[in-house]
Amino acid sequence: GKLTLESQAGTGTVIAFSLPLRAASGPAAQAGAHWNAITGTRILVVDDRLQNREIAAAYLKNRGALVEQSSSTTDALQRVDDANRTGRPFQVIVADRLMPGQNGFALASEIKSDERHANIIIILLMAMSVQDRDAATTPDVQRILTKPLRRDDLLHAVSESLMARREVRRVKTASQTAALKTSTVVSAHVLVAEDN
Questions:
Q1: pLDDT of residue 194
Q2: 48-101 tens-digit pLDDT
Q3: Residue 42, Cβ neighbours under 10 Å: how many?
Q4: Is 4 helix (H, G, I), strand (E, B) or coil?
Q5: Bridge-partner residues for 66, per DSSP?
Q6: Helices (H) and strands (E) in the chain, counts
Q7: How crowded is the C-beta side of 126, counted as CA atoms within 13 Å?
Q8: Bridging pattern class, strands 92-96 and 143-146
Q9: Which residues pair with 14 in a beta bridge?
Q10: Chain centroid, CA 59 distance in Å
C-alpha cells in the first residue's frame, strides 16, 4: 500500500492512501451477482424528500439502472403516462409510502388500475416494524422495505422482483407455445369397419 501526506500552512492537510486488494470471491461476491438484472432497467424513484430520492437513485444508478426522480405522486403519475406514451415505460417504481397528498399505496393502486401499467413492479419504502410491514401487504405492491433504506435490501428487492417477473413471462410464453402445439387441429377422415 501507499500513504501520502500533504500539508500547507493556511490551506489544510490532505492524507491519502491506497491498498492493493483482490477481487472478492465466494458467497459474498455471488450474493450481488444477480443485481445485474437491474442494468438497463427504467426505474422511477418517488419521494417528497430530495435526500431520500438521491440516495435510492444513487444505489440503483451504480448498478446500471436508468433512473428518474419524482417529488410527488401527481408528478409520478404524469411521468408514468409520458414514459408509456413515448414507448419507454418504467419497469419499476420505488416510492415512499408517506408523502403529502396521496400516499404510496394510493399511488400504487392508481397505477395498477390502468391496464397499460399492469406490469410495473412497485416497491414501497416505509418506516415501520417487520410486523407492521407484513400486515401492510396489498396486491398492487410487490415489495415493502423498511426505512432507513439499506442498499443491499433495495438492490435485492428490485433484482429479485425483476427476475421473478421475467420467469413468469418465460413460463407463460412456454405454456402458450405448448398450447399452440397441442391445439393444432389435423383434418383427417376415419373409416370404421365392423364385421358383426
A1: 65
A2: 999 999 999 999 999 999 999 999 999 999 999 999 999 999 999 999 988 888
A3: 16
A4: strand
A5: 42
A6: 6, 7
A7: 21
A8: unpaired
A9: 6
A10: 12
